[in-house]
Each structure stands twice: as structure tokens, then as C-alpha cells.
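Below: protein 1.
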Amino acid sequence: MTQTTGTQRGIEQPEIRPLEKINVSEAELAELRRRVNATKWPERETVADATQGVQLATTQALARYWGTDYDWRKCEAKLNALPNFITEIDGLDIHFIHVRSKHENALPVIVTHGWPGSVVEQLKIIDPLTNPTAHGGTAADAFDVVIPSMPGYGFSGKPTAPGWDPAHIARAWVTLMKRLGYSKFVAQGGDWGAVITELMGVQAAPELLGIHTNMPGVFPAAIDQAAASGAPAPAGLSADEKVAFERLQFVYQKGIAYGYQMGLRPQTLYGIADSPVGLAAYFLDHDARSYALISRTFAGETEGLTRDDILDNITITWLTNTALSGARLYWEFWGKGGYFNVKGVSVPVAVSVFPDELYPAPQSWTEQAYPKLIHFNKLPKGGHFAAWEQPKLFSEELRAGFRSLR
């Protein structure tokens, strides 16, 4: 990995160093398979649906594939084919992928993953963004793409003291982009990436031209509080607003058990650091719509994600032992703000609404939340992990959303 850093080609930044080639030992992979195949299974759930959690049949189908046919080396090769770097920010090593476009005047974008996540979620969008002419776009649509691993995730360092909350990460991303030589850039995120990207928009560094989110924080404070408390929908909501309220209320009541656990007691989750299948089941247990889109791949459906997509993401976490260091991000944010509420973003904002997101953001609330809304579009398909699941639609949205800022 010898690609130069900074926007002036050929100039190395001394504080940025290449990530050593990823090469997991055969012994580690054999031990992973042994643990998967030695799983102690509980009885199946007593219901015919997923209301009790990740179903036994789904988890066993995942384990059969993971313990026999899954090939980590394919993921390793994909990662090693990309320019990976490490840089230290505020005392912590931050891993990032940095791919420049061959086209002149490409727009720099920093894209942030979420939980349960890693840079694997963004790999499919790199070529459509950096090489748009090969994917139905024009040279004027080109991006330089930076994809960091959040602190405590993947190949980034693990914080050893409190303080790496989303606001800190947002500031660190500006430091990273400036260190790469970018004086103007945009930012994108979903899930935790959406929270971090919106906080970048609140902090409004002069170098930040605008942001794109596929999980926009649009709920007025009173509406968000009502949804969280289980109160009935407030009077006077439009049809779109009522749907969004009901979907968010379902998320709070039924969909984020993992968020409460990690937000309050992340260190207690020794089981997901010790058991690969325990980790896999915990990672699959996202909101109901995401679980449906993820679990269907183990039932033989081919739309969206593949079995390898899912297991690449889980396996990175297992091999880097980052289940708990990643979980602590929820603890860092607990009580410091909301995930889905209006945050006061002052920079230009582009919003893409995927139908199987946690909630479909209504245009009315979106316009109120973002005074400088420059793009709003509802997509025909796709969910919470849009870049991962629908990379073509997602890449087209980034091109359209940021076009006016070039």
C-alpha cells in the first residue's frame, strides 16, 4: 500500500502511515471455525416469528456456513487491494481507506459506518464514487473517498479512557480530512455515521461544505419524547408524519434492546467477545426491518446483502476483538443527546429516504430540521444499511445530493 496521502500527489504526510497488509494466521481462522462448530445451542424460540429475537434456524444456518464454507481470505484480499492507512489523532490510532479519483476536481467525501459495522459496509460504493464514468455517471460526479474505522472498531485503536463520543469523532474527522490536504470536503453517514455526520454539521467547520444522511435526525423534541415514552401520536400529524411517529415508537419499544444494553452496561457483554455465534446473533439483532433484510440471505434470497457480506462484517469484529470497544460508543453517548431528533445542523444537507429505514423521514419535518436542505428524495427500495445493501442507488443519491456544492 504505497499510495501517497494529501491532495497533492507525490507528497507524503509524515504523520500518515500505510496499514500493514492484513494477514490473519491460519491458526486464528481454524480456532474461529472450531468455536463456531462447538456452539452450545439453546432450544428454539416458542413463537413462529422473530418477536423473541434472532431465530434459531437463522443462527444455525449462519453457523453452518461460517464454520465450513465461508472464506475470510476473500474479504482480506478486497481490503488489501485498497489503500489503507493509519494516523494518530488525539492519542488514538485511526484506520482509514483513502481512494482518489482519476478525474480532476473530484469532491472529497468522508463516509462513516455505523454499528454493528465496519468499513466493509462502504466497500461497494468506492468504485461508483471514484470512477463514476464506469457506473452511469460523468467525470463531473467524481469523489475522492475517505472511509475511516470509528474508534474502537475494526482496525482503529481502542480508546483506553472515556471521551471518544460522537462529538469528539466528528472533530477528529475534520482533523483527518485537513491532514489529508483537503481544504473543502463533504461528509456522509448512516446509523452512528449519521449522528457523527450531523454533529459535524452542527460544529460547522469552515472546511465542511455540506453533509448527506440516510438516517436524518428530523423529529421535533416533543415528538421524539412522545415516541420514546409510548404516548399516543400527537394530534395534527399528517399521514407521513404519523407513519414516521409510529415506526419510531416501534423502534423505541421493540427494536433497540441492544442500544439500552450497550448504552448502560457494555462491559457486561463478555459473551459476544468469547463466542463467535453469540457475536453473530447479537449483530443480527438490529431493528425488525434490518433483521428481515439480513436474515433472508440465510434463507436463500439474493436481493441486497449476501451471506459473505454479513460474515465479513462479523468476522472483522471477531478477529480484531472489538465487540466491546465498539459497544462502548453507546455508553459514551448515553444522556448526551438523541439519535433521531433535530440537532441544529447549520450547513447544507442532502437527505435520502430509504423505505426500510427505521422510519421514513417526512419531507415536512426534514425541511424544518435542515434550514439549508439542498436535496430530498424517497427511494423505491433499501433499508438502514443503504450503502451496503443498495450501493447503486446510494451512489446515485450522493452524486445528486452534492451536485450543487461542487
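Below: protein 2.
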Amino acid sequence: MRLAPDPTVTPADVSRGKSALVKDAAWASMVGALYGGVILTGFALELGASPWHIGLLAAIPFLAQAAQLPAIALIEHIRQRRKIAIAAVSISRVIICLLALVTLIPDAQTALRALLVAQVCITVFGSVAGCSVNAWMHQLLGGQGLGDLFSRRLFWSTVLASLGALGAGHLVQHWPGSEPLQAYALCFAAAGLVGFISVHYLAQVPEPVMQRTGPREPLLAMLRGPFEDAEFRRVIVFMVAWNFASNLAAPFITVYLLQQLGYGIGTVTTLWIASQVANALTLYLWGRLSDRLSNKAILAVALPAYLGCIVALPFSALPEVHALTLPLLYVIHLAMGGASGGITLATGNLGLKLAPQGRGTSYLGAVGLAGATAGGLAAMAGGGLADWFAARELAVLVQWTAPGGAHHITVLNFRHWEFLFGLSFLCGWYVLHALSRIREGREHSERAVMQEFVAEASRSLVQLSSTDGLRGVLLLPFGRLRDRRLKPR
């Protein structure tokens, strides 16, 4: 297995590398589904985690992005990004496997502390790998036609992640033994092993020799450059605002569903899968729009939709959990998944597109570090606020009084975790303001994006009018997504 940079990278090598990138992302997403997300939160709650612990657990991956600082220096010194990424990812996979041993610790608090330490190690090595891969991809792909490639990566990622989450959630909820921690141990071991499949594909992606744009800059000078660039600084401000607003509430949705609404982990997993399925079904459309219009235009539509879903969560259980609560939650998660697909695609492309060629390491590292710091602080703030809001409630009632008596209708009722959803929605208004200040070429209105989105969706649905059309839609992931060429429009 060759890990040193390739002296020559041909278009055929790039094409094979793109295929390998799709497979790497797909298997890596299954790792996250088997060990992270709902499963990791459920495991922490099983160990007796408090809201502060949940917030800290969610903050660790963001704060671990500080490892990008030494990673940038390491990349510039060694100048072998593939070797650094493969080594760091492999170590993180081994630690994920070792998480299975945490379930053997008899004392729950000791096991919880071990989980937090392991999460720090996993995410630190993941951060080093991510920084290396970002700089690697920035040079290899050149910022052109990224919408289609990233939509394919995200499509297959959501497919395998959904399968992994479904299996893990079913295993934990229906574990035949009396000790559910054994089910979590099996999930962690499987996640680590599956992770090495993604490492295999990542190693097949070609790596061009790093370009030198001038004398080597000191690390602080490299990081100062993106913040001194007035145009790119607007991207950084937007990413900081978005990461803070979203992570003030998003890490606690699982806890809200498990504890406050009282659903089982299997049901919560299916809600997460519903979101991922919607994400996958809309990614192809978002990818085409990203190449045709702009990332900023997509964000102008997807962000308000996502924020609306966040603030809609508390209203699904008014005045208490009822028969329609779960169906409403599925609808909200479907809409949230579709919106988050556009957000993930557009925010990922935005930094790659606006970072100057030859300076991808420092620019992408700076925006990633700034956004991650905001996300980590937001998650910790959310955990602390959740403790404070636990004993508080805000209710708005409408009273109708008539000769036959008085009737009360609850129109708003925020309790505990629901306050975080409201605060996240309010912070989202500044996110939209920060987005409006970014310049990304030609401007497109939200109406134009919606018209194009509906047109793309309609073209896909028209294919259902015949048997051949139906076959084309069903084979979309295997044919149309894989074979569509990447080229700027």
C-alpha cells in the first residue's frame, strides 16, 4: 500500500479516487452510526450521565478540533497528507474497538469518565485526520463540480448510516440478555472493525505532491491569513454563528426524545433514520442545485427550514404527549433531514470554493477550528442551561369564557430541553444575517432556488410514469449518481 504522495496524478487516477472517496465516506458513516449519535447518547444515559455530561460529550468532538493547530504544522513539515490521515484514522478506529471494554468497568461513574477520555482520544485523532484530508482534497479536486461528488458521498453515507443505526438500535432495545451494556459493547466492537474498511478505501485516493506557494510561514501567520482576508472572514463568521446556533440544541434532541417524551431507543433510532432517509432522497437535488446556482442560495432556503423544524419540536407534544405526537415527530424529522442535507452540502462546498488555491490547509483549518470552537461552547452552554431550565416552565394559555364555563387552550409550553430549541431558533436569525454578507458570485433569490428544486423533483417524478422510468429512479444510486460527470455548469 503506497502512502507517499504520487509524483503524477492522471485524470484516470482522480476518477478512481472519487469512487474511493464515496466508498470511504459510506463506511465511515456506518462507524458513526454504530458508535456515535443515538447509541453513544443512550450508552452515556445508561451510565447515569447528567445534562452536563451529555453537553460535554457533544462538545468534545468540536473542542478536539484544536488539534488542527499542530496538525497544520505537521502537514506542512511532513508534507504527506495521506500517510498522516491513514495513521490518525487507524488509531481512532482501534480506540473505538476498545470502547467495548468500558462496559466491563463495574463502577458507572468510572465507566463514564473512561468514556469521556476515550471520546477525547477518538476525536483528537479524527481532527488530525480531517485536517489532512481537507487539505488533500482541496488540491486534488480543485473546487470544481463539488456538488455532485459530495451529494454522492452524502447519499451513500446516509444509506449505510441508516442501516447501521437501525441494526444497533434494534440490538440495544431487544437485547436478549439482562445486561444492555453488552449490546453497546457489541456495537462499539463492530464500529471499530467496520472503520478499517473505510481506511482501506481512503488509502486508494491519490495524493498530489504538495504545492509550495512561497517560503514556509509560521503557524500563527498561516492562521492569521484567513482572518485578515475580509471576504473569507465573512465565511468564518457565518460558520461560527451556524455552529453555535445549531449545537445549542441539536445534541440534546435524542435526550429530549428519550427522557422528556419517554420514547425507547429503538423508536428514537427510527426517527433518526427517517431524517437520514430524507437527507439521502434530497441530496441529489441539492447537489445539482449547488452546481447550477450557488451554495449561498441553497443555505438561504435550507437554514430557515431547519430552524423552523427545531422550534416545532416542542409543539408536537402540546399540551402533553398524545397519539399524533409520534407522527408529527416523523414529519419534523423528515423535513429536518431534507434541510440538513442542503446545509451540509453547501457549507462543505463553501469553504472549499472560496479558499484560495495553494492555501487550503490554513484556510480550511481556520474555518473548521473557529466553527468547531463555537459548536463546542454551544454544546457545553446547552448542557449547563438544561440543568437550570429543568425546574422552570414557560406556558402561554388562551382562555375562552362563556356562560357554560371556561376553557383553556395551551398555545405554548416550554419545559426543560425545549427552552434550548427556542434559543437555537432565536440565534438562527443572526445566522441568516451573517449568510447575507457572504459574496459567492452571482446572487440567486430564495424563490429561484425553490423553483429549481421543485423542477428537479418534478423531473424525477415524471420518470415514474412508465416502467422504464421507474427502473431508472430505482437504479439512480447505481447508475445516474455514479456515472454523472463532474463539471462546472
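The CA atoms of residues 310 and 421 lie 6 Å apart.
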